[in-house]
Specification:
Layout: E1 11-14, H1 24-38, H2 45-48, H3 54-61, H4 70-82, H5 92-101, E2 105-109, H6 114-123, E3 133-135, H7 148-157, E4 164-168, H8 171-179, E5 183-187, H9 193-196, E6 202-204
Parallel strand pairs: 1-2, 1-4, 2-3, 4-5, 5-6
Length: 213
Amino acid sequence: MQSIYDIRFKAALFDLDGVVFDTEPQYTIFWGEQCRRYHPEEPGLEHRIKGQTLTQIFDAHFSGDLLEEQEKITERLNEFESKMNFIYVAGFLNYIQRLRQEGVKTAVVTSSNKVKMQAVYASHPEFTSLFDAILTSEDFAESKPSPDCYLRAAARFGADPKDCVVFEDSFNGLKSGRAAGMCVVGLSTTNPAESIAPLCDLVISDYLESQTL
């Protein structure tokens, strides 16, 4: 039985929502409201778009006749995110502090933008001290599932991809870490463990030391 505490690496790269913060249930509420407003013919759409970037969601479901609505949805999303509760996934703080004590480089690699991150910093002033680097959507040429974001994070530390571990919860994020040639730990905070397992080296529900696969 392997635990995250048994994995050895030089850099740990974390997605944000569903990985550092348990925010996915809140996003389900927001997107549920938007989907019922614009796509009442597709019940449950908010669950199928989990883990996708805003651009991907807009391109797939809010283009064409709904193109002019994108700005309104973005404004609602920014307002929603400014009031979100950013609650750390259980055990995360102790785990990342242990990594840093052991000299492991840490980074957030998120599709969230800088506006969203300002809300995070306001809620958690200690956040930036937990990471050696924070990469947001503005730092990437391509969105997940492209490996671009994780390869850029590894390069930031001068680390070989094989010496990095990725923590992800979404299918696109897991695919991104896999395509980057990194060890992938999947969190079952957003999707069932059995669904993400084929894309992971290890599946956990949180960062408590008892969590193993």
